[in-house]
Write a structure and sequence with these properties.
The complex is a heterodimer of chains A (879) and B (359). By secondary structure, chain A is α+β, with helices and mostly antiparallel strands. Chain A starts with 14 loop residues before the first helix and ends in a 20-residue tail after the last helix. By secondary structure, chain B is mostly helical. Chain B is built from ten helices and no strands. Classes of the chains: A alpha+beta (879), B mainly alpha (359).
Chain lengths: 879, 359
């Protein structure tokens, strides 16, 4: 932010420092351990009066000098150069805090170099006693240089009390200082043995060779237990949240954790093998392999340590993006493009979106993510996301992936970044225009003779839109099942609701009559529900044609397995049923058509990748569905994808209860609605109604456009009744909290209410049962004085609009006004008749049955009393 | 774009800037002298081989044995001034480093390559034969390139007005070639290195001559000639360098400008004397005038940098949040280190002097 960014692509993400640093530490720790090795081995040679041992030491010293002075020393400077280039802000901070620590280390470097030169060049020229002292001085200085740098490295991970008191000593002697010092020291001694193998295996005389190789093996093996002990101590000194992060929550680290646990024993085994007398060529090869294993062992540790620090470069103080923790709020408010110095485009416009996206990427993402390179390749990680999905993901990722920082910029900047990644890097070709709806040319209205016909048959579906998750190969959230209702009214001055002596049958239109040919639901039913479901029948045994059951003052046919796919595999979410009423003589007394809205347009693929399954506009592909489970497994520690892949698709309501499916769940987990909304609210908040449509098929540019009744025409969106997703989620989670589900508290922690000062103000609710109600706004059926009604819920299921009746207690509200979300007058995108079939049939107008003084529809004459409900005898207000 | 908008905010100091300034000047002086010895003697060896590839003269042999030491100490003594520079001027220097990132990081590779080449020259001196010219040429070239990158970085850090080029080239491939001071500065420093390299040779062989080696006389003259010729050539380079500096930097109306003029004058006088001494073969006279010249020139270098940056920054702007204990600890270790090193060198000297055999 303060400094320019070195714009890298494949080499970004820290690759350069990883290579430079791992190379350096592998040699430098050898430089420490090897120092002790040299002097102790020389003392051994003197003690045993064995000149060949001393000659070995001299030879090893030459190798030691050439390796550590040049490659080792220069790459140490190389680390300094590299960190200054990759994160100058952090480097500057460390330099200014620890300048005199580094100055002290420099003194030891100088003494190291001088003592090593003297040690090597006075071999055979200086008396033993003094020469050994020089050797000890070398080791002492080398170990002290490790001592000094150790404080600074560990400070970055555990700055300790320095955060509060800014004191050099608190920062230097921080919580992991001592365990790390021992850890590195023991590792250094092990490396001494490992490198010792190289020169020892080159000894020509086999007796000496075996002796020295075994000697090196002791150096490798003996410190190992102490090394592991200090590793355990190191881990225990980390703050608890850091331990959880590193050892449980970071997928990136897992292979390195594995490596660390495998390579250590491998080295021990190798050491034992080396101790066996074997031909020189074999010895040499094993030594070389061991050296590589050692590099991977040490590299694994360093990777774990570095990655575990994320998202910080100096924990709790400075992020890897160079932004100070204390400045995050300011940057989020004012914008990164305003706060950063080295920015070319400070304004995001259509022309500059890609460039500004790149600039934002450089500052916020390059420190950890390469573009097409080996480290955290951003292209691979984001390939499933549309720009919308990516914007959502970025906004909430830090809540479930604690190694990511909160996004340091404004929502506009976040969108520009998502745009850049999706279009600039991933070359996405997401649809940018509205879906072209394949409309129906004409939609026949059944006939009705207002003079002669004796009956009015009204029918409607429970839901204005029944969503189905067409992903049954992998999982099932919402099964198919439209419930149709019907009421038969005998016309007259005092009409009657007829239940006895009539049979009401239903039949789906032909194009939709064989859903088992279009979907895998029935193939998977046994695995999902534990029972076979006959093809073409629903969860309550009803098929797509049959007889309706009497229910209260009407009839119903429950859970009809409607799928919105035609025989030529087009997506059409508004299939119709023909309802026929027959008398006891089996004569047809009334007919009506009713739309059974069912949609499978659920855009999980916005974030979960994959393509549409059906007609390039609907259904959830196996790829998308698989990714959903993969995500669930990663975040919740389950193994659902494994189950699904072995032929056991997951029925979500087994764990996550759902009142709409009569599924109690497993008491421990959140109900389905609370879980899904509660989780996704972390990513979709602060966007109003725009993102409801990512899951609910009401996108006005989509293939369903399910929210289509009068309220939409009047300009109300989802949030007017249901609230923004934040508030929506909070109301569901609070109810679950009251049910004792602790996960609700975890999710509630990160969701801020959109329209309330605190979550205390939000009234808990159960899904499908406590819902907003018409009369909240239409108080006493009068003109509404407000247009929002979040936080006022029906008491129970029987009080829902779709279950209520008029003042007589007999006529269902929905019979005349239609299903929720498609309240008359409703506009259907496929044909203007489709959501007005009965109003057009009975009164040639799309408005509620009987409105506009049309009491004649049932009463055959005009009425002058408002019997059914208040304020109904008037001109329909919204024509 | 106003260049000052790009200048990063510096961090705070733990002790007043004077401490760091003092340490910077002293350690830079040591580093540059060592660097001059390293590079200068390397170039002289190369030229000797170039002139007579098949011959081996004892001077080159001696240089081959000492060059790895010179490199080791040059690098080690480069750490300290780089450290103190970053404390005082880090916000400028990191910036210019990033702008030339690819070149800057290549310094490490060049250094390792040049350093290992020097060891090959050392250990395989005899067997290399006529290839010695290539090995020294490679090593010296690597070091010269490093020097060039150094000159680029340290001039670019004082030119915030050139930083806006970053936006056309953010991938770390910028240099400061458009700066009129770059080439004269580089040539001035490198030529000085040759001169000091010559001086170091003359000093070494003077020491041997005083211990009784009469063949050393020839090489004393050789070293002095190199010093004198190089310093003579360096005068026009120096004037070119001085002339290329912007007016506001050498403005004699400012205190800094006066100091610069004074020190340059001093250096010129000392420099003339050093050339005279070198032609007279008076090695110690050369030493006593050349080293102060280098020191004074380093002061000029620092003043020039301060003058360049004056419109934007001065070290007295840096805020101090005092914490003296780390400094005291460093001084303690420094003195302790000197004692330890002194003691070790004494032992080593005895070992070589008396040619003690281990008992």
């Amino acid at each position: 932010m303060n400094y320019p960014v070195w714009q890298l692509d494949a080499a970004a993400g820290g690759l350069l420092i990883a290579m430079m640093a791992v190379f350096h530490v592998y040699i430098s720790h050898f430089a420490v351990g090897g120092g002790l090795f040299l002097v102790l081995t020389e003392m051994k040679g003197i003690r045993e009066n064995n000149q060949s041992v001393i000659d070995f030491v001299r030879k090893h010293t030459k190798f030691f000098l050439l390796l550590t002075m040049v490659a080792g020393g220069m790459t140490g400077v190389g680390i300094w150069f590299t960190i200054s280039l990759l994160n100058p802000a952090a480097t500057s901070k460390l330099i200014h805090i620890f300048v005199f620590a580094w100055a002290i280390e420099w003194v030891f470097f100088a003494a190291e170099i001088i003592s090593l030169f003297i040690y090597y060049y006075t071999f055979g020229r200086m008396d033993n006693r003094n020469h050994v002292i020089i050797g000890w001085i070398y080791f002492g200085c080398a170990w002290m240089s490790l001592f000094v740098i150790n404080g600074i490295i560990d400070f970055m991970l555990t700055p300790g009390a320095w955060i509060e008191n800014n004191n050099f000593w608190s920062g230097y002697f921080n919580p992991t200082f001592w365990p790390a010092l021992f850890f590195r020291s023991f590792l250094a001694f092990m490396l001494a043995g490992l490198y010792g193998f190289l020169t020892a295996t080159n000894l020509k005389e086999s007796g000496l060779r075996t002796k020295m190789v075994r000697y090196c093996a002791i150096w490798l093996i003996v410190p190992f237990v102490l090394f592991l002990g200090s590793a355990w101590w190191y881990k225990a000194s980390l703050p608890l949240e850091l331990q959880v992060l590193i050892f449980e929550r970071m997928p990136e680290i897992r292979p390195f954790l594995k490596g660390f646990s495998v390579f250590g024993p491998a080295l021990m085994l190798g050491g034992i093998i080396m101790a066996i007398k074997m031909p020189q060529a074999v010895n040499r090869s094993v030594a070389a392999v061991m050296l590589i294993i050692g590099l991977m062992y040490m590299g694994s540790f360093e990777f774990i340590r570095e990655a575990g620090r994320r998202p910080y470069i100096i924990r709790d103080f400075m992020y890897s993006t160079s932004i100070l923790k204390q400045d995050i709020d300011k940057v989020r408010k004012n914008g990164l493009l305003q706060e950063a110095k080295w920015v070319n485009n400070r304004v995001i416009s259509d022309d500059t979106r890609l460039e500004t996206g790149r600039e934002i990427f450089n500052i916020l993402c390059l420190p950890c993510h390469s573009i097409g390179g080996p480290l955290n390749n951003i292209k691979k990680l984001t390939r499933n996301y549309t720009p919308q999905g990516l914007d959502a993901k970025i906004s909430g990722i830090h809540r479930f992936s604690p190694y990511m920082p909160p996004f340091a910029g404004t929502p506009d900047e976040r969108r520009a970044l998502a745009y850049y990644i999706a279009f600039g890097l991933n070359n996405r070709k997401d649809r940018k225009e509205d879906v072209i709806i394949k409309t129906i040319p004409d939609d026949t209205i059944p006939e009705f003779n207002g003079e002669a016909d004796k009956y009015v048959l009204l029918a409607w579906s429970d839901m204005g839109m029944k969503s189905v998750t067409d992903a049954s190969n992998t999982w099932m959230i919402l099964p198919p099942g439209v419930t149709l209702n019907a009421q038969l009214i005998e016309r007259g001055e005092t009409p009657d609701v007829i239940v006895d002596g009539v049979t009401i049958t239903y039949e789906i239109e032909g194009d939709f009559a064989d859903p088992d040919q279009r979907v895998d639901f029935w193939k998977n039913a046994q695995a999902l529900y534990g029972r076979a479901i006959a093809a073409g029948t629903g969860l309550s045994g009803n098929g797509l044609s049959g007889t309706m059951e009497p229910e209260g003052e009407g009839f119903s046919a429950t859970l009809l397995p409607v799928f919105p796919y035609t025989t030529d595999n087009r997506y059409m979410p508004y299939p119709t049923f023909t309802i026929t009423a027959r008398n006891s003589d089996d004569e047809v007394i009334a007919t009506a058509r009713v739309v059974a809205s069912t949609a499978t347009e659920m855009s999980c693929k916005t974030c979960h990748g994959g393509l549409w399954k059906v007609d390039d506009r609907a259904g959830i592909s196996d790829v998308t569905a698989g990714n959903v489970l993969e995500t669930h497994d990663r975040i919740s520690g389950t193994n659902l994808q494994g189950l699904a892949q072995s032929g056991m698709p997951v029925l979500c309501n087994r764990c996550h209860g759902d009142p709409s499916q009569n599924a109690p769940g497993n008491r421990e987990h959140l109900n389905l609605s609370a879980a899904i909304h509660g989780f996704h609210a972390n990513f979709l908040a602060e966007r109003g109604a725009a993102y409801c449509v990512l899951c609910h098929p009401a996108d006005t540019g989509g293939a369903t456009r399910a929210y289509r009744g009068i309220h939409r025409a009047l300009g109300l969106n989802c949030t007017y009744c249901h609230g923004e997703i934040e508030d929506h989620a909070i109301s569901l989670l609070k109810a679950e909290l009251e049910n004792g589900k602790s996960r609700a508290a975890v999710l509630l922690k990160n969701i801020r209410p959109a329209n309330f000062a605190s979550i205390d103000e939000i009234v808990p609710r159960k899904p499908w049962i406590n819902e907003p109600d018409c009369l909240n706004c239409h108080v006493d059926f009068q003109v509404p004085e407000k247009d929002t009604t979040f936080n006022q819920w029906t008491d129970g299921g029987e009080n829902l609009y779709r279950n209520r009746t008029d003042a007589s207690g007999r006529l269902r509200c929905a019979a005349c006004h239609n299903s929720p979300h498609s309240i008359y007058p409703a506009e259907n995108p496929y044909n203007s008749n489709r959501d007005a079939l009965q109003p057009l049939q009975y009164q040639n107008q799309p408005y509620p049955i009987g409105s506009n003084f049309n009491c004649k529809v049932c009463h055959t004459i005009d009425m002058d009393e408002e019997m059914h409900h208040g304020n109904m005898l008037r001109e329909f207000r919204n024509q | 774009m106003d260049p000052s908008a790009l200048i990063p905010t510096p961090d705070t100091l733990q002790v007043p800037w004077g401490w760091f300034q003092l340490l910077l000047i002293i350690t830079l002086f040591l580093h540059l002298v060592l660097m001059n010895v390293m590079l200068g003697s390397g170039i002289i060896a190369f030229v000797n081989h170039f002139r007579a590839p098949e011959e081996s003269n004892p001077l080159c042999h001696a240089i081959s044995r000492k060059l790895p030491f010179a490199i080791a100490f040059t690098v080690n003594f480069g750490i300290a001034p780089l450290l103190f520079l970053q404390v005082l001027y880090g916000h400028f220097m990191y910036t210019s480093s990033v702008l030339m990132a690819n070149f800057w990081i290549s310094v490490i590779a060049l250094l390792i390559a040049g350093y290992y080449m020097a060891y090959i020259y050392n250990y395989k001196y005899d067997s290399l034969g006529g290839s010695r010219v290539f090995v020294t040429g490679f090593s010296v070239t690597a070091l010269l390139i490093i020097g060039f990158f150094m000159s680029n970085n340290f001039t670019m850090m004082q030119r915030p007005d050139t930083w806006v080029r970053y936006f056309e080239n953010p991938t770390g491939l910028l240099l400061n070639l458009g700066d009129p001071t770059l080439f004269p500065r580089y040539l001035h420093f490198m030529t000085a290195a040759v001169a000091i390299g010559g001086l170091s040779i003359a000093l070494y062989y003077e020491y041997l001559r005083q211990r009784g080696d009469e063949t050393a006389r020839r090489w004393v003259r050789h070293g002095c000639r190199w010093f004198g010729t190089a310093t003579l050539i360096n005068f026009p380079f120096g004037f070119w360098f001085f002339d290329s500096l912007p007016d506001y930097v050498v403005n004699v109306k400012s205190f800094t400008g006066i100091l610069i003029a004074l020190f340059v004058l001093t250096a010129v006088v000392l420099g003339i004397f050093s050339i005279i001494f070198s032609y007279l073969g008076r090695v110690m006279g050369v030493l006593y005038t050349a080293l102060p010249t280098v020191f004074v020139m380093i002061l000029v270098r620092d003043l020039v940098r301060a003058a360049y940056l004056k419109p934007y920054f001065s070290v007295s702007d840096l805020t101090v949040e005092p914490q003296y204990s780390p400094l005291f600890l460093f001084l303690l270790f420094f003195i302790g280190g000197l004692v330890l090193v002194g003691w070790m060198l004494k032992l080593a000297w005895q070992a070589f002097d008396n040619k003690e055999v281990q008992s």
